[in-house]
């Protein structure tokens, strides 16, 4: 079946002229393909970053180009379906952007293209399911919002500081609050804040998803409403600093909220590794012993390449580890674990294949402990390690620090 050209033209009008010029360059190139974790697994031409751009431009040309109007070129549902699949077979890791000799800002473009697909009503059904859960329960797992803080009971957190006013607020995030594999991260950050006698609080049951998944599926309006809600909850507590232990929440709160709300929130956003490094450097956190096993670190794409925090986790690790080694491909060049871009909802087996590759890289270092600092990365790495029957112990940096202080 063919689609109405005017409807497609309307949906395709969200990309800016500079973005279209970038797409044009990209559509003729494939220099970054070997860097792309999804293309490296599936090797289909349409999955080369430039191949996705070419598929997008072909439809854009048919919808908006003069020649297509004159010759009445048709746009089929199948073409849109193929483009949608190609754009969702992507972890939004930004590695293509890092490798690109033309400085193309792919990660933003991918999100804009997903927005086009959303405007067209062609978003894949599994992603629409996610969107529905976010709209109904304010988290992507469809969990009852009243259970958002239940992890504190399971983990046995003795002091739960829900306060009306505080200096510091821990934004826990959905993947840490609701996924059992990550609840020790929330517990670790909490006991570390108590250990350091901070005047701190949570939003609690009123916390909503940071909006990052909504931005990844191109629903900016809904992401904006979540941002407004969270900012109101934080600002009414007169909080000065917000700490996140999730790379996705960090990026959303720090970089996306000011854009979505068209104003700067009245608080500073930091990632837990920045906070821990500061406390170590100031002498507030001291370690009597260092971890004796060899440790390696997986950089979350959203924190390193896309968030600019590369030194901070390494400084924390060198304070607590006797021997720390790098994986092949690290820092800005880090290989994705497969956990980003909503790939788990779209193609979970591909996500696992990508994480297996990352686990193999970590194993090649000879490390016994693989650490990271994002709950989505931890989930993907744990799944990859399980599949591979790897003996690596996988822990978040906050867990490692808390354990080293005998707080876990
Ligand atoms: S992102 Fe850059 S390197 Fe990759 S295909 Fe596009 S233009 Fe080429
Ligand atoms: S963002 Fe990552 S997964 Fe997506 S096309 Fe670029 S390199 Fe591939």
Structural class: alpha/beta
Q: What's the mean pLDDT score?
A: 94
User: Can you tell me the residue ranges where pLDDT is under 50 for at least 5 consecutive residues?
Assistant: none
What molecules are bound to this protein? Answer: iron/sulfur cluster
The total domain count is 3
- Counted by DSSP, the helix tally is 21
CATH class of the largest domain: Alpha Beta
Q: Rg to the nearest angstrom?
A: 22 Å
Under the CATH scheme, the architecture of the largest domain is 3-Layer(aba) Sandwich
Question: Can you describe what's shown?
Answer:
This protein is an alpha/beta fold and 408 residues long. The protein has three domains: 2-123, Fumarate Reductase Iron-sulfur Protein, Chain B, domain 2 (Orthogonal Bundle); 127-277, Rossmann fold, CATH 3.40.50; 285-404, Rossmann fold (3-Layer(aba) Sandwich), CATH 3.40.50. The chain is built from 21 helices and ten strands. It has helices at residues 5-11, 17-27, 37-42, 49-64, 66-71, 77-88, 95-99, 106-119, 125-137, 150-155, 174-178, 183-195, 212-216, 220-235, 247-261, 272-281, 311-320, 343-346, 348-363, 375-388, 397-404, and strands at 2-3, 75-76, 168-171, 200-201, 241-244, 268-271, 295-297, 324-325, 369-372, 393-396. The strands form three sheets. It has a four-stranded parallel sheet with strand order 4-3-5-6. A four-stranded parallel sheet has the order 8-7-9-10, sandwiched between helices. The protein has a two-stranded antiparallel ribbon with strand order 1-2. Helix 20 (375-388) links the parallel strand 9 (369-372) and strand 10. Helix 16 (272-281) crosses helix 17 (311-320) and helix 17 (311-320) runs parallel beside helix 21. The chain is globular, with a radius of gyration of 22 Å. The site of one iron/sulfur cluster (SF4) has 14 residues, from helix 2, helix 4 and helix 7. One iron/sulfur cluster (SF4) binds at residues 25-26, 29-32, 49-50, 96, 99-100, 102, 104, 106.
